[in-house]
Amino acid sequence: MSAKAIKSSEWLESWDPNAEGKWESKIAWKTLWVTTYALTLGFMSWFLVSALAPKLNNLGFDLSKKELYWLAAMPGLAGGGLRLIWMFLPPILGTRKLVTYSTALLIFPLVGWSFAVRSPSTPYVALLILAFLSGIGGGVFSGFMPSTSYFFPKSKQGLALGIQAGVGNFGVSIIQFFTPIIVGSAMFGATLGGPQNFVDKVKGIDKSVWYQNAGLVWVPFVIVSVLISWKFLKSVPVTSRGVKDQLDIFNNKHTWLMTVLYFMTFGTFAGFSAQFGLLIKNLFGEFANAPDPVKFAFFGPLVGSAARVISGPIADRVGGGILTFISGVGIAVSAFFTSGQLSPASSDDFMSFFWGMMAIFFFAGVGNASTFKQMPMIFEPRQAGGVLGWTGAIAAFGPFIFGVLLSLMAPTDFFQAVALFAVVGTAIAWWFYARKGAVAKS
Q: Of 7, 97, 146, 216, which shows the fewest CB atoms inside 10 Å?
């Protein structure tokens, strides 16, 4: 029975994107756009804390630099941990139920933060719990991406997954860009209480803000996503339907090699996306005419996300291995350069730091796309979905690991460590996937 004959049912029982007559591009692309919309909302929820943390003390909270790093890191811990669960769900729940139910869960952190920011007396542990719940938006990635890969032939997976992950990554920029605009408006009136008092003694600012709106405004978008996911999505059955059958990916050395490479790329992107605003504040915040973190932090995720979208079709043409190698070289050089920009004498030194960070984000974005092209080429379809989920789960710990290390290490030492790790990843990419005669060309 063809997919056309069973469009009214949830499961596409006869579906093989690599076989003629068993694939419908219309269903595949509809799935891509619906799940990409949901994934974008997930990333917005995941990085909401990164947009709030740099300004909490201006609202009357009394949090140390270490506490703020940990707060911004907590969604990464949750995102990585939850991805280890979500990676097993696509063949069990199917795309329709997985996307619908997962998206509905985003309402909890979005509404929760709208209450927490209203009072500086909110316990720090409550903030950590809400930050952990925000990680749900990161966890869904390891379910959404593998399930989308089931809908596309190998020749189009670089493009499709590049679009989904790249556009989804734009959620980071969206939440960081619009939060300062949203919190300056009383669009919800006194629905969740009156305004907060925002004070910046360095810049002489004392004004009213509505930080409860930062999460609340996106709830209607989440509800729309839940409804259209349930109505329009289908599910593709795969060979494995249980957790145990999916564990054989760990017997393949390429699972572990690609885990290193994806952490080098997406781990770096996510880690710096979560901490960029705090880095700006902590490095330059004491200077006169200090740059406002919320006006610059969104540029990094924006550049990285755009690079991911653009690099997807390029990876389809030239292969993912060589692009991952180029990405590693770029990250290593950029991180080492930026490590020399972390002892500023004045705010005039900011732009050197900023452009170094933009280079890191760009090359991380390139590698985000190329690694996702590699995995469907290296592994057979059932394993590829599991590896996509696993590598995504480990890389999602990036915000947590970066936050913890920045709370323990001097920034210069940390950036040099990032550069060194990228050198290791670059060597792996070259030897196993990019050089002539590599065992696994991708």
A: 7
Q: Which residues contact 54 (CB under 8 A, 6 or more apart)?
A: 68, 277, 278, 280, 281, 293, 294, 297
Report the domain count for the chain. 1
pLDDT for res 378: 85
Task: Please report, as a single letter, which amino acid is at residue 270.
Answer: A
Please state, as a whole number, how many other Cβ atoms lie within 10 Å of the Cβ of residue 261: 31
Measured torsion, CA atoms of residues 305, 179, 68, 108, in degrees rounded to the nearest 10: -90
Residue 206 lies in a domain: yes
Q: Which residues contact 186 (CB under 8 A, 6 or more apart)?
A: 195, 210
Provide the pLDDT confidence category of residue 189 given band limits of 50, 70 and 90: low
Separation in Å, CA 393 to CA 135, 138, 252:
11, 9, 17
Pick the closest to residue 136 from 164, 100, 97, 109 (CA basis).
Answer: 109
**Structure tokens belonging to residue 11:** 């499961």
User: Is 374 a member of any domain?
Assistant: yes
Residue 51 lies in a domain: yes
Contact between 16 and 77 under an 8 Å Cβ cutoff? The reply is no
In a domain, 2, yes or no: no
Provide mean pLDDT across the span 255-276.
93
Domain that holds residue 204: 14-434
pTM above 0.85, yes or no: no
**Cβ(423)–Cβ(417) below 8 Å:** no
* CA distances, 32 to each of 95, 213, 412 (Å): 11, 29, 40
pLDDT in tens, 169-182: 889 889 988 988 88
CATH of the domain at 90: 1.20.1250.20
Distance CA 203, CA 180 (A): 16
